[in-house]
């Protein structure tokens, strides 16, 4: 996703994880689904909550709270999975991101986006595109391609292959 130039608008889906507001570019969002059955995968990294069956496709789900060094997300009625597309090793990959609640879609211009803070955030600076101004507050804009292209994402992809083989063996 390219950066917004002055005067241009970009849309972001905002959501909550552990009492903080985050946003991702709307063009990376495939869909938002209600939290349902997620199957744990043995030996998956801690941030990989498991996999879900999305219309016959196995999709790994990453718990952002764990990814940010916090305790595992507590599932509530508002918990959901944002299914996103990100580029991992040059390949378009579909993954789920577990969040506490989806907030809204917001329009931000280049003037509304500040550089990522060097301090005060649970998220490593290289995982942020910036901070979007929303009223009196801010939303941390995530760079999903960097955030999810770490060892967890690679292991999640391997978990998908393992889960797919196990499903095929049972069939």
Task: Please explain how this structure is put together.
- This protein is an alpha+beta fold and 171 residues long.
- Helices cover 16% and strands 45% of the residues.
- Strand 4 (48-54) and strand 5 form a beta hairpin.
- The radius of gyration is 16 Å and the shape is globular.
- The termini are far apart.
Write the layout of secondary structure elements.
Blueprint: E1 9-17, E2 20-25, E3 29-34, E4 48-54, E5 57-63, H1 64-67, E6 80-88, E7 91-99, E8 101-109, E9 113-114, E10 128-134, E11 137-142, H2 144-147, H3 151-170
Parallel strand pairs: 2-11, 5-7
Antiparallel strand pairs: 1-2, 1-8, 3-6, 4-5, 6-7, 9-10, 10-11
* CATH class call: Mainly Beta
Order of helices and strands: EEEEEHEEEEEEHH
Q: How much helicity do the residues have?
A: 10-25%
Strand order across the largest sheet: 8-1-2-11-10-9
CATH-level-2 architecture: Beta Barrel
CATH fold label:
OB fold (Dihydrolipoamide Acetyltransferase, E2P)
How much of the residues is beta strand, in percent?
A: over 45%
Low-confidence stretches: 1-7
Cα-based radius of gyration, to the nearest Å? 16 Å
Whole-number tally of structural domains: 1
The general outline is: globular
* Strands, total number: 11
CATH superfamily: CheA-289, Domain 4
Mean model confidence by pLDDT = 83
The span between the termini is 39 Å
Tell me the number of helical segments per DSSP (H or I, 4 or more residues long).
Answer: 3
Which structural class do you get from the secondary structure elements? Answer: alpha+beta
